[in-house]
Amino acid sequence: MQEWLEPLVKIAIVIGALQGAVAYLILVERKAAAYFQDRFGPNRVGPWGLLQPIADGLKFVLK
Known about the structure:
mainly alpha, 68% helix
C-alpha cells in the first residue's frame, strides 16, 4: 500500500463519522425543539424520521 493512501483513508473515515454524528445530533435537536413547541418534529422520511438527515443532505446537494 502506498504510504499516502492509508492516512487518507483514515481521515475520510473520521470525517464521515463526524458528519454522520452531526447530522443525527441536528435531528435530535430538531425533535427536542418540536417537543418543546408542542408540535411534530421531522417525521416524514423513514421510521420515526430517522432518515431525515439523509433527505436533508440530498436536498442540499441537489439545490
